[in-house]
Amino acid sequence: MDRMLASIKALPGTLLIALMLTACASNAGNSDVADVFARVNNSVVELHVKAIKTETTGNRTSSKGLGSGVLISESGKVLTAAHVVDTATEVKVLFQNGEISFAKILWMEHSADLAMLKLDKVPEGITPVKLGDSKALRTGERIMVIGAPYGVSHSLSVGYVSGRHSGPEKVSRDITPLFIQTDAAINKGNSGGPMFNMRGEVVGIVSRILSQSGGFEGLGFAVASQTVKEIIEEGTLPYAGLTALPLTPELAKVLNIPQGYGALVQQVVPFSPTDLIGLQPGRLPVKVLGRTILLGGDVILAINGIEIRNQEALFKVRENMLVMKEGDPLVINILRDGKVMTLMEEKK
Asked: Which ranges carry the PDZ domain (predicted)?
């Protein structure tokens, strides 16, 4: 110890000051993380999801899933990832203090992997957090991720913004989702959880990882908060309880779809609006052009008279549905067992 002290005393004054400042800066950084975590942690929730899917036999089987979310309003709105709740029949929400609430799905955008939930109650003492400005994030900036990896509740991981990338699919004519890349550890159960900046603002919603092993390898992605804001500002469609695959001309040709495009129904959530209107899900998993899809379900050919012949038509359908009023009929033309049929729902 005496030798160590003697060595320190022998250091030049400027170097000694620099070392002290570096140590202080390091401790301050750790303190910032701890302070932000303490401030925002109770806004993070754990989602326990019950889902029912149609199997190859045509029977519906139940399954359970795990994810995360974050409370963003005093009225009980919770943001999460679409893939966490896309076939959910029940969403149970567990808070840090052990209290439980249940949630319904308000809207969902699969192309951005985003969903908004509404709690039936918000426990006392649970405070929402603010959506931050993801446009202001710089590569190299520190961020935090909180979630429930493998069910380990309220786990914190810290990393940096590694980059930003546009999503492969557009939400609408004017919205292309943006994803923030990070090296913060993300694993199963983190999906739907928040990414925070160091001001304690939500700048992303955890979406997916790239991995060859199946576990985290330093390549995680979160949907940017600016995409959330753009979707809300443009307008959201009510939850439909449907997952469908847009058919490219190549897929349409393989499946012998007469109009060369359409949307192949994959899953329909029981008792959802699309289930009540009569849409049928796929049943037979097959690999086509390098991807696994479910065959045997309805192919949506047109909605409200708009034929689905390309991506532009999908945008028109969205725009049409955004301006629909209460009582307006929803008319869906489908291909089922080689026959064209019309399904109709009267809006209540």
From this structure: 217-338
- Give the model confidence (pLDDT) of 28-68 as tens digits: 455 699 999 999 999 999 999 999 776 655 567 788 999 99
**Contact indicator for 154, 131 with CB cutoff of 8 Å:** no
Choose the CATH number for 242-346 among 2.30.42.10, 3.10.20.30, 3.90.550.10, 2.60.40.10: 2.30.42.10
CA–CA distance, 160 with 33 (Å, rounded to integer):
13
Output the pTM of the full model.
0.86
Which residues are designated catalytic? 83, 113, 191
* Residues 319, 237: Cα–Cα separation, whole Å: 10
Give the separation between CA 192 and CA 208, rounded to whole angstroms.
Answer: 9
- The domain locations on the chain are 42-119, 134-234, 242-346
Q: How many Å apart are CA 114 and CA 124, to the nearest integer? A: 26
Q: What is the mean pLDDT of the chain?
A: 88
Q: How far apart are CA 106 and CA 119, in angstroms?
A: 10
- Which of the listed CATH numbers 2.40.10.10, 1.10.10.10, 3.30.70.1400, 3.90.550.10 matches domain 134-234? 2.40.10.10
Long-range contact list for 37-41, CB < 8 A, 24+ apart? 37/144, 37/146, 37/156, 39/200, 40/129, 40/146, 40/194, 40/196, 40/200, 41/96, 41/146, 41/154
Contact present, 307 and 79 (Cβ < 8 Å): no
How would residue 98 be classed by pLDDT, with cut points 50, 70 and 90?
very high
Quote the pLDDT of residue 58.
58
Task: Domain 42-119: state its class.
Answer: mainly beta
Q: Are 25 and 32 in contact (CB under 8 A)?
A: no
Are 65 and 72 in contact, with CB atoms under 8 Å apart? no
